[in-house]
């Protein structure tokens, strides 16, 4: 006869049986991978974000250009009434586009940090660690999102002072911040992939400057899609910045509406981000060659 102390409770026996089954072991393995990936990505993001504390003036200097766009271009074109923007004023219409522009300009040069890390030997240590390559890329993308949020808050505050009619609903603001982070992650990951290919600071800066203006002007940031020639409309619909601007207009502006639909905007941003993370993670080890 078995002792009561040695007899396992039925529930505990069932739990052990479930965990010892192939399906249970697979589930535990997936959870372990997700936990390790999240921890590694957050560690990289935290390390990158701490750099802002050493040079916080970078955020303010980068905010000067979008503020000038709002203060000069927005006011002049608004008075000229040369661009039809429907029920919203041109300044209101422009604010999400300039926010997206500031995110683009912050993120598109983010890859230069990868070249600096390679030259300093930091990248070799990252690659020698057991960290997932995708976690390294995702962590840097998350850090770019934090930088973009800080800068966007500055630009948004200036827009309110200029009289822009922005929605201040907490839910709408959270949605706008989510798209700002997504946009920064998309273009910073694209920047990392470019840095892996060109491998030198001079070439990277030249390509970054070459890409920013076409990406900006081939989008709906400063004029509606309907005003574009047919060929430019096609290019614009293949530009992730277009979907970010469209979502920001629907979420931020009083009377603003999405042209493509928030569901499609989100799907495009997430899909492009996942694809770019996979590409950048694949190219990451080649940077040290």
Describe the structure.
- The structure is a single chain.
- With 289 residues, the chain is mainly α.
- It has one domain (10-288).
- 76% of the residues lie in helices and 0% in strands.
- It has helices at 10-20, 22-49, 51-54, 57-80, 90-108, 112-120, 122-128, 133-161, 170-198, 201-217, 230-237, 240-252, 262-283.
- α4 packs antiparallel against α5.
- The longest helix has 29 residues, at 133-161.
- It is globular and about 60 Å long.
Secondary-structure element order, N to C: HHHHHHHHHHHHH
What Rg is obtained from the alpha carbons, in whole angstroms? 23 Å
Query: What is the count of β-strands?
Result: 0
Spans of 5+ residues with little confidence (pLDDT < 50)?
A: 1-9, 11-19
- Rough outline: globular
Strand content: under 5%
Q: What percent of residues adopt helix (DSSP H or I)?
A: over 70%
Major sheet details: none
Count of folded domains: 1
Query: How far do the termini sit from each other?
Result: 69 Å
Mean pLDDT: 83
How many helices in DSSP terms?
A: 13
Structural class: mainly alpha
Give keywords.
289 residues; 76% helix; single chain; 13 helices; 0% strand; mainly alpha; disordered N terminus
Topology:
Layout: H1 10-20, H2 22-49, H3 51-54, H4 57-80, H5 90-108, H6 112-120, H7 122-128, H8 133-161, H9 170-198, H10 201-217, H11 230-237, H12 240-252, H13 262-283
Could you give a quick summary of the protein structure above?
The protein is mostly helical and 289 residues long. Helix content is 76%, strand content 0%.
